Amino acid sequence: MPKELLIQVSPEIAANQLLLLDHVAKLICTSVPEIQHISILKRSIDARQKAIKINLKINIFFQGEDFAEEIPQMPGYPNVSNAKEVIVVGAGPAGLFAALQLIELGLKPIVIERGKDVRGRRRDLKAINRDHIVNEDSNYCFGEGGAGTYSDGKLYTRSKKRGDVDRILRLLVAFGASADILVEAHPHIGTNKLPQIISDIRDKIIECGGTVLFETRLTDIIIKHNEVQGIITQNGDKITADKIILATGHSARDIFELLDRKKILIEAKPFALGVRAEHPQELIDKIQYSCDYRGAFLPPAPYSIVKQVNGRGMYSFCMCPGGVIAPCATSQGEVVTNGWSPSKRDQATANSGIVIELKLEDFKPFAKFGALAGMEFQKNIEQKAWQSAGQTQKVPAQRMVDFSQRKISSDIPKTSYVPGTTSTELGDVFPGFLTQTLREGFVEFGKSMKGYFTNDAILHAPESRTSSPVRIPRDPETLEHLQIKGLYPCAEGAGYAGGIISAAIDGEKCALKIGAVLKGL
To answer: What is the pLDDT of residue 88?
Structure first.
């Protein structure tokens, strides 16, 4: 039997298999030749003390014991060319994993995606970065793989109760992700590697008889007697099916407006909004690792911080060590920021959304929009930012201390945000309560992280697409919409997930519910 052990080692030992082997042998009072192999099951960093340690959960295999490296395999996906069809709207993680699950169940997914495939999206990302041109159907939010494809590929989730996280991670490894994601406490694929995995998933869906249609936007849902019968696309094409998984993401405002026009029940939902703060990565390393130089064996340091300020939560969101800030507008006339990191996290800067939790009462100035009040609140700030920065994809920016002291920064250094910045007073972009909370909150952040509150940090505004401003209510058991039979609101856009893993889990859950109805499972 392999011996399972929890150990703490230095970063250098954790990074070197021979040093680890020697350390473990001494720890369990045996000789190195007696150990056949050490498997690392889980790995995390303990930076609470000045001497940083790596926590390892390991399995020790001794000579003579059976050992084989386990490689996650794909399920035996059947051919579903002639099977019952289910429409999946959106090719983000929810839609793609829903499609895979449908195939496993012997059902045929018809996946429609308003944006382009991963390769086609690159040209549109270049256009928004270099030329300030926003393609409203193909951008950082819309297109194959969804918002996560080109905005980091973080796989960490706190949603352990929502479903089988390991299943999603193992499927990703089967489709080409590094097996390290099964081990790391905060797994991350990287924006540079995720597109190939996404395209391989699409190829598998098509190989099994499923359909994937790009540049195909839903413009209407066909409903008769409160039951779905199909959809209409922007070209007037009709696709029929009596089961629809609606996995359109948190930025599909036209879908929210469509549902509102058709009197299909939706609800305003609180979300969080703020800025994206960029620091030198070296400074964050110094704060988090309590050292002047992190060395060769530690990764760029992340951070996570939460404060209560003026009765509201203020917290870091989607923190990207060694990463860059990206322009994530989905329409002309608005500015939106987000962040991402390549797999090596080797950029010189660290960035994070720093956001304030909003309440439904904050949306009262937009009450005439009903369930879309939060969305209009969000749009208003994004449009103000666009106006403030010069009506391009440049963002309003301010040094952190200057912002807290109500000073317009005399200069803004070049940041990782490619379209550029315009020095402004960010208080002109946000409503007063949000501005004041941010100002006070950054001072509080600096008390917890010595050195964080600095004018070397540049604030970019706004970070506004943290989650959907709308919830599409569904039955907690069947996962169908409360009014419309056969409509399955899913994942981030419907208000039921937040991130790649939780969205993928929710996509699978919706597919399984449909399978239970159609296949009698």
So the answer is: 98
Q: Give yes or no for a contact between 275 and 518, defined as CB atoms under 8 angstroms apart.
A: no
- The whole-number pLDDT of residue 370 equals 98
Q: Tell me the C-alpha distance between 414 and 30, whole Å.
A: 55
Q: CB–CB of 465/251 below 8 Å? A: yes
Look at strands 108-112 and 85-89 and give their pairing.
parallel
Superfamily of domain 85-266+471-519: FAD/NAD(P)-binding domain (3.50.50.60)
Q: How far apart are CA 21 and CA 27, in angstroms?
A: 10
CATH of 3-62, one of 3.30.70.2700, 3.40.30.50, 3.40.50.150, 3.10.110.10: 3.30.70.2700
CA torsion, ordered 357, 359, 364, 369, to nearest 10 deg: 90
Q: Give the rounded percent of residues in the chain with a pLDDT score beyond 90.
A: 88
Strand ranges (DSSP E) for 400-480? 421-423, 458-463, 470-471
**pLDDT band (50, 70, 90) for residue 149:** confident
Residue entry with tokens 């402004």: 424
pLDDT at 155: 80
pTM exceeding 0.85: yes
Task: Give the separation between CA 1 and CA 3, rounded to whole angstroms.
Answer: 6
**CA angle in degrees (0–180, nearest 5) for 154-155-158:** 115
